[in-house]
Amino acid sequence: MDYKLLTQKDLAERWQVSVRAVENWRKDGLITPVEGIPAIRFTPEHIAELEGTRIEKFSPLERRRMENEIQRLTQENEKLKGILSQVLANLAPVINLK
After folding, report:
1. Same domain membership, residue 34 and residue 18
2. In terms of CB atoms within 10 Å, which end of the chain has fewer, N or C?
């Protein structure tokens, strides 16, 4: 992904506020900078989310495919939990023998 990280000055200009206001919001935890780099920078996605613009990482088709996969895996997980529960119930008398 090729994009430019935003500085506090970039945000101040974008939101038409002072750099000090941006610094205060960052210190108060209202905006979160990118971690792991030596400078204070913000991702365009994070800022867009704060501004109320939803950034889609998947196409609608890909999103639907992933939702279907999640549903299938959830059902499989529930089925496996049931099997495990039955196995443990059958083993309980054996395990409790001392």
Report:
1. yes
2. C
